[in-house]
């Protein structure tokens, strides 16, 4: 089976009580890696999530400490999950309450015992609480199929267990709500059969959805239920809490690197000394512009933060360390989670969390020198507009011509054809030629088939064949006063008239 990493469990259980939002986010970020081992993880951390709301003052209460200890206890006794066995069928157990939904992915092992593969649960959004009971149960089923899609898609026959008997015939009902009609296209991707399982037999999912911490009647006035996106998150509270679910280790090394870099930056070191010991002597060591803006700086543990105005979210100040700044920009731009965004979006993402002078200029140079962006993305410069050929006004005033080679050899050993087309009447003249036909021979055929019968055209259209671009051919048309219109390189559709005849 799958067992949680003992080192990570030890780190979580030995973590001291958080003193501020930053420390709480760090601890939740580490605990989130093991959420699949914990039944109703989202419900356990719900009391603490209220402390991470915007504009909520930090106030660590007994219920927060109880939730903090409950998560530690739950992870310390994390069960051994079964490894997914694709040769055996999966089945899903799901349930919904008035305020949450829960589901469990399960399999039977070789000895016939029912084993848990993964737990999932989340709280309902405000709008979802207004759903009818029938739609809430369907929402739980949809949530389960989304979360376990990688295991369930393509299963020959999938069993879904629910405590709502009417779902067994929901797909065939002639009276569907608009919401159900939208969900039908999603359910059609799976081959599943719904089985009724009463509450007394559906203990696992029922407990996940009916956790007391989910119940809004049990929450304090600060414990707002987060609005989560059930389609994108692996954890019910990742987005609301601001946790990066792709990181595999706590952010302490980066924090220590930033804090250590302040010592090598005399400018920020002086600000930190003043904030830790606000005396006249430490204030006098600051420059006048810095003294005027000192109220924008603050200390968050060992990190220096900066705000633009009183309504701004504090941002971590990054000292003048090129390696440190390069590491941050790399994470926000080059890393898989960054997605190689442009300079505006990269700056917007990075400036939400960090600050250093002339950050935009720094990011602009980084993005403009990114090899992958330059190689893959389209050029920002505007391309010239397409210019169609002028429309022919009378017969044989505009002629298009082209060669066809690779045809069966005739009695004289010729394997090609020179094609002349009148762009107005669509009349065609064909002349057999050898594969080694020269520019002089091509000019003679033009005079014999076109000029002798129809006179001199005002313009001719051809591709960039060496025979048509030779000095002799160009000089001939210059003496005759005819314009030679060449097609765009590698774009034969320019001379579409002749290509269609070919």
Automatic annotation (TrEMBL):
Domain called Integrase catalytic: residue spans: 384-502
Biological process, per Gene Ontology: DNA integration
InterPro entries: DNA/RNA_pol_sf (IPR043502), Integrase_cat-core (IPR001584), Integrase_H2C2 (IPR041588), Retrovirus_Pol_polyprotein (IPR050951), Rev_trsase/Diguanyl_cyclase (IPR043128), RNaseH-like_sf (IPR012337), RNaseH_sf (IPR036397), RT_RNaseH_2 (IPR041577)
Metal-binding among keywords: no
Domain of life: Eukaryota
PROSITE patterns assigned to the protein according to its UniProt record, in alphabetical order: INTEGRASE
Keywords: Multifunctional enzyme
GO MF term set: catalytic activity; nucleic acid binding
Stated name of the protein: Integrase catalytic domain-containing protein
Organism ancestry: Eukaryota, Sar, Stramenopiles, Oomycota, Peronosporomycetes
């Amino acid at each position: 089976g799958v067992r949680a990493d003992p080192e990570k469990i030890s780190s979580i259980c030995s973590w001291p009580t958080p003193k501020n939002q930053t420390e709480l986010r760090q601890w939740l970020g580490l605990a989130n890696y093991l959420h699949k081992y914990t039944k109703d993880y989202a419900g356990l951390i719900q009391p603490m999530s209220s402390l991470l709301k915007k504009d909520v003052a930090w106030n660590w209460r007994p219920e927060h400490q109880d939730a903090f200890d409950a998560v530690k206890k739950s992870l310390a006794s994390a069960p051994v999950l079964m490894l997914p066995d694709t040769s055996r069928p999966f089945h899903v157990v799901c349930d919904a309450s008035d305020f949450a939904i829960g589901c469990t992915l399960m399999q039977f092992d070789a000895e016939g015992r029912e084993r848990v593969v993964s737990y999932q649960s989340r709280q309902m959004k405000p709008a979802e609480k207004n759903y009818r009971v029938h739609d809430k149960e369907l929402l739980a089923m949809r949530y389960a199929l989304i979360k376990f899609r990688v295991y369930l898609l393509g299963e020959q026959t999938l069993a879904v267990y629910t405590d709502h008997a009417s779902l067994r015939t929901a797909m065939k009902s002639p009276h569907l709500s608009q919401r159900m009609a939208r969900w039908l296209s999603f359910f059609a991707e799976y081959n599943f059969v719904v089985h009724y399982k009463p509450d007394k037999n559906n203990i696992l999912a029922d407990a996940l959805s009916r956790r007391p911490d989910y119940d809004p009647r049990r929450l304090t006035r600060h414990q707002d239920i987060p609005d989560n996106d059930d389609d994108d998150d692996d954890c019910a509270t990742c987005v609301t809490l601001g946790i990066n679910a792709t990181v595999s280790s706590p952010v302490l090394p980066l924090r220590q690197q930033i804090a250590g870099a302040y010592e090598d930056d005399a400018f920020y070191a002086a600000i930190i000394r003043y904030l830790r010991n606000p005396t006249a002597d430490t204030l006098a060591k600051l420059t006048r512009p810095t003294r005027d803006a000192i109220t924008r700086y603050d200390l968050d543990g060992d990190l220096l933060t900066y705000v633009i105005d009183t309504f701004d979210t504090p941002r971590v100040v990054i000292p003048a360390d090129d390696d440190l700044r390069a590491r941050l920009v790399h994470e926000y731009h080059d890393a898989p989670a960054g997605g190689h965004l442009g300079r505006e979006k990269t700056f917007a993402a990075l400036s939400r969390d960090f600050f250093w002078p002339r950050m935009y200029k720094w990011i602009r140079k980084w993005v403009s020198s990114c090899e992958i962006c330059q190689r893959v993305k389209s050029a920002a410069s505007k391309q010239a507009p397409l210019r169609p050929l002028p429309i022919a006004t009378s017969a044989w005033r505009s002629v298009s011509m082209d060669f066809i080679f690779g045809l069966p050899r005739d009695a004289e050993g010729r394997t090609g054809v020179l094609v002349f087309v009148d762009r107005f009447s669509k009349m065609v003249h064909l002349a057999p030629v050898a594969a080694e036909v020269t520019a002089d021979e091509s000019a003679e055929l033009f005079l014999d088939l076109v000029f002798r019968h129809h006179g001199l055209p005002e313009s001719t259209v051809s591709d960039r064949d060496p025979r048509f671009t030779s000095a002799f051919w160009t000089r001939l048309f210059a003496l005759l006063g005819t314009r030679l219109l060449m097609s765009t390189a590698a774009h034969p559709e320019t001379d579409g008239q002749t290509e269609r005849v070919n």
